[in-house]
Amino acid sequence: MGLWELFLSAFISSTIAPGGSEAVLAYMASTGSYRIENLLLAATVGNTLGAMTTWGLGMLAAKKFPVPTLLSADKQKALDVVKARGLWALFFSWLPIVGDALCFAGGWLKLPLLSAFLIIMLGKFCRYLVVAWLFV
Fold first, then answer.
1. Which domain holds residue 35?
2. HEC profile for 50-111?
3. Calpha distance 51→122 (Å, rounded)
């Protein structure tokens, strides 16, 4: 398994399907085949770009369906959290289940792209750093 596979696992885990990018990273970190910095970079970039894809889908959905009541219950709850907590709620986009909804809500609310990107990336990096640290 290589860095591109880790990148793709992380991207897919953050978009269309629940995935096991943490397990892939843990395995790769434990083998010592790659520098930890390269593993962290591949996983963080892939997962962040996947999250930003979800953010973009939220922005597009808001244009087509501007009434928030049309959202599913989990997306409505995430929208309320992001409204209440602001950009920093996106730091928790790494959480299972609710993370994708938070990114979607950030896009729906048209939060500033660069700020959202940086905060999401910081949260994803911190999560992968802990995983890598545990398995090195």
1. 3-135
2. HHHHHHHHHHHHHHHCCCHHHCCHHHHHHHHHHHHHHHHHHHHHHCCCHHHHHHHHHHHCCC
3. 12
* CA-derived radius of gyration, the chain: 15
Domain tally, the chain:
1
Give the closest residue to 117 by CA, choosing from 19, 37, 9, 45: 45
pTM: 0.89
State phi, psi for 34 to the nearest 5 degrees: -130, 155
Mean pLDDT by 10 residues, the chain (136 residues): 92 80 93 95 97 94 79 79 90 89 92 96 96 92
The residues near 9 (Cβ < 8 Å, ≥ 6 apart) are: 19, 20, 21, 24, 43, 46
